[in-house]
Amino acid sequence: TIKVFNTGNKGSPAGSLSTAEGTATVGDASKCELKVSFSRFQPFPSPYRVLETDYTTYAIVASCLSVVNFLDLSALWVLSRTPRMDANQLKSLL
Questions:
Q1: Is the pTM above the cut of 0.85?
Q2: pLDDT at residue number 57
């Protein structure tokens, strides 16, 4: 298993710190997909697909819960290995 630890600020860069710790297993390695659980009460792991990364400063990750996707529950994150990503780098990724 792989430890997943996400931190971020709620609502804005000045917002309160939020953390989430979970575990992941490899789903489909050919698609860079993990199956991630953040709670033992989560009924099934969520897909967590790495769409792009430079392996040192950022990763772009997507998740879509196909079982409940009729509710349009999908997400896209730009993850940084530093507390503040360079504004030019972020702009180029978006």
A1: no
A2: 93
